[in-house]
Amino acid sequence: MTVQRRSPKVRRRRLPAGARERAPIVVERLKLEYPDAHTELEFGSPWQLLVSVILSAQTTDVNVNSVTPALFARYSTVEELAAARQEDVEEIIHRTGFFHAKARAIREMSQDLVLRHNGEVPARMEDLVTLRGVGRKTANVVLGVAFGVPGFAVDTHVTRLTRLLRLTSATDPVKIEEDVCSIVPPSEWTGLSLRLILHGRRVCIANKPRCHQCVLADVCPSAELGLTKPPGAARHRGATAG
Ligand code: SF4
Hints:
By secondary structure, the chain is mostly helical. Helices cover 51% and strands 0% of the residues. The structure holds iron/sulfur cluster.
């Protein structure tokens, strides 16, 4: 299978002040904090990862991991899931939520793989996003994690953190991806996305960021949003903030 590296698109939007200086600091600090960047989804093949990422919408990876063993025991190949009955799949994945749409998405994605890709998951963004149920975020996770092709997946955590860290001022995931990829080398795209997701779950939690525990507090322009700072805790603001 041919693996192709994508080039970042030419970016014309203006980045927030200091974004270029902050980006390498964020990359290195998060690398130290989360040296083993990985997805918490459990999978045994690119197809299983693709199914798991689709199922992970609006739920936790733990929840997805609780249904996929039964799903892949019942349907062990792309062809078997492609031919599965909708209601049978729904019953297995029910607890991940949105089970009608998710069951349809993983069945139709598998049908597309059988019909157009000989049952194999393609390793190119332009092919992945033509599969039903597969968007750019899902494709970037699969590219980065399953194939080692640099991909910066933008989910809700990545959107929130890149904006709080003022690496972008965009709100559209595609524009966020373009902005970050314009100031971070391709070799860091996959790891940075995975680490931002971990940091967003553990420290920079939506609406209650733990800035006093955050390794980025001295360079983060939004550190003052940390309302949970304990009394007497010191905070440092770096020259790159702003
Ligand atoms: S300093 Fe606070 S707002 Fe900034 S990334 Fe860390 S937890 Fe989030």
